[in-house]
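The pair is listed for reference:
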Amino acid sequence: MLLYPQKDRISSKFGYVDETGAFVIEPQYDEAFPFFDGKAFVEKDCKWGFIDERGHFVVKLQYLWRTEDGLAEIKILDKWGYVDYVQGNVAIKPLFDETRSFKDGTAFVKVGNKWGIIDKTGRLVVCPKFDEVGEFDCLLIAKEGGSYEFINSSGQIIKNPRFHSYDSFYDGLAAVEVGRKYGYIDVQGKFVIEPQYDEARHFHNGLAIVNVDGKYGFIDSTGKIVVDFLFDYANDFYEGLACVRVEGKYGYIDMTGRFKIVPQFDNAYDFREEYASVKIGDKYGYINQKGIIVITPQFDDAFEFCEDLALIIINDKWGYIDKSGQIVIQAIYDEAHYFHDNIAVVKTNGKYGYIDKTGRFVIDPIFDSCDTAPFKDDDSYFHDGLTAVEIGKKWGYINRRGVLIIQPKFDNAYRFEKGIAVVRIGNTWSYIDEKGKPYHGDYDEFDSKHGSYFGSAQESARSGWDMIAGDAGFDSCDSESIGEWLGFD
């Protein structure tokens, strides 16, 4: 009897129908592939496995997301390999201690404590020899013998010299360390600025802070010194001014390095919305860009303005002030965050909720945790209309009215970007859409479109999170029969 995957219009679940169109295996799967040699690959609750023609799981497997050309990573008996989820068979036998997704026809695999490279037949293109591996923008990176190097898919070094640490790419350049000195490379791995600095930060608005002999200055993307090495501390430019420290006091310079506000403060933050928080003695207040005190120092701590309101702390409680210095939302919260789109996250009595600019709760404090939106001018708590919240140690998603759109069932949940979010159940990671349904699009294309979301090689979903799927489980099978079924020798 031939069976075909069919989506039920009412439940939106997949089942299998016979040639008459009648369901033989009831709709229950989030995704279903055709039968091949009596087995079909199905997904349910973000977990993948194989069923037989009676709908029984022959082997339950947990997977990472699919890789290119129909391959997905699997774990069987504590070893990793790759399954062809279209044809329903093991493409590369589980022989490895760890694996990474295929890209451009090759994948990193780990044997013991060393990494190598295999092709899609499972053949070792590079014997295991690397201590660490990952992707660095469009480059492959590997660590061997205490230093990093760029390699191609055949394991050949494509750029020299080796380097000992590296930062993320910003404005097309990344800081790397060679022989205890820092320089900058482009996305091809070529040095644009030779290693010469004792410390090097990432580029911001065309300038980078670097350190020589304990003093900080600024360079442009060609390595030209824009602001000389004069400061004991320096931060990036915001609104045309950078906060610097000289002999224990903080002030502000313009982009020529000239002091616009002479060092006089005991601590200071960046300018935002034309005001900066500064510390005089043991209290914080605010100055304008001329260095004039506009809000008298009176707070235990005070932070940047965002949407015309600033966070302040009084007696370990958080509140908000306006630009006249008036407390517009009393300091009553155990924790508070910046306003974005006229709402802010606050914590009270151990629970998180959302308030408006009058201090009224627009979403009641009922959550154990939530996305607290790091400070950025263009940031928001809600992405694609949803934000992640935690209830009872499980994560789900609410809309701006506080309505649960995706029920809490995930152990981790990340922000939506272009309608897609990364989630984890147990040790299994996957993508979901805005309805909480598994996403089955082109993941490599999705990754390339969302580089800023996944971040650098150190922070990306593939390299930084070290997504390792969970233990395999088996129904009505012993290890010998499983091995025979999978085609092991």
